[in-house]
Amino acid sequence: MSQSPSEEAFPAAVYKDTVLEPLFESAKRHYWRHLMRVNRASAVMLAQQAVLTAAEVRAILGALAEIERLTDVTKLAYTGKHEDLFFVVEAALIDRLGVAVAGKLHTGRSRNDIDHTVFKLALKERIAGIVEELLGLVAALLDAAERERATLIVAYTHGQPAQPTTWGHYLGAFIELLLRDFDRVKESARASDLSSMGAAAITTSGFPLDRKLMADLLGFADVQENSYGCIAAADYATALYAQLRLVFLHLGRFVQDLAFRASFEVGHLHVPDAYVQISSIMPQKRNPVPIEHLRLLCSLAAQRAECVVVALHNTPFTDINDAEGEVQAAGYEAFETGARALRLLAGLIAAVRIDEVRVRRHIDESFITMTELADSLVRRERLSFRQAHDVASRLSRALLASGERVSTASYDRFVEAFAAIAGRAPQLNDAGFREALTPEHFIAVRTLPGGPAPAPLAASLARYRRDLEAARSWLGAWSARLAAGDALLAARAAAILGR
Fold first, then answer.
1. pLDDT digits over 85-109, tens only?
2. In contact, 365 and 405? CB cutoff 8 Å
3. CA 358, 361, 367, 368: dihedral to nearest 10 degrees?
């Protein structure tokens, strides 16, 4: 059949401009270095398995080293001569060694297992980076919680003052959440630590490849066993990004709480000048805009993580471009944006302080210690909790009506409210009544595990510190495995080259 004048040679101009060239530019940033690691490891493994001769592996490793040394990746331009970066490297190798030798490097492998292995290598480094930032934030929160373990704050429910607690206790709740987030990321990261090499296109090959050696040379913990799953599952991406999205969803909720506490109307959180921007027109303004930037960064990071998961929704369980370069590169932006958010929040938390004068005034005005008055009546007057609740509720309404505060509450009003419900006078005297209404007493008696009293809070903070150190040990082992792979690959290549 004759070629139609309208037909173009591959690649069609629009395909080149909209797909191949953008992918090539992305691969230059994210793919090149890991591809060359896979190529070196493949050469070393094939030589050990006697698929390559000693002379062939020396020639291939030498040529690969020369290609890396002489190639300015940033200046590579997509011409359409080669479909992608993989074929650019293969062509450069063939130019130096000829196809009879250079062509042997691809024995028993495919771009399928190479791609997924490269994507995992890129993720493994990013996982190390984001976990380091996450644990840095946990450390900053722990330092603040330990320093401010007794600093009073108002705890809110449904946007209204509820009970007093401490800044250390409040921060402890977020520390626990972030440590659970770390556990979720750690668990989901396991799939990224399993090598896909040896799966070839999807069913392995008939060559005597050593899949475990490839995993070791590349710094993986082990081999992903089922070859079909190596190519089709892609859960190393979906699981990881699903959990990463939760990190920033949770972070954003905390940031929104900071914005609320720093607002003029609440004013419990003082943001220092280093984190405040001025208005171009209103001279009195103090705008804590880093909090807004944090909220935005968290939203962007969560959305960019989610896009990886959504891209694979309802896709076939096989080799598909939906799981490859374009979506992988999009996901990397979640790490970059998220790292900025984690680092900024760590700095902000170290700098902000609680305005205790304002907090105490709001505790006094909002009657949020009334729960403990009711509890004290149960313990000391032997009322049922419902009776005690009714006494405290009646007293609150009376104080509000008279314009009194907790600190100026009339003992006589309490006696009147008590008698109306209990039918007798209280045994609780004026001093006991006033002690029951102080925020210090409220906190001191909440000694159950996880509560804000000094002993349980100290125990919680000590456990968080141990959990943080355990997480750092995991990160150290993760990073060490990456470094060990690099060292093993370099040593094996140097031995082959006689260096």
1. 999 999 999 999 999 999 999 999 9
2. yes
3. 30
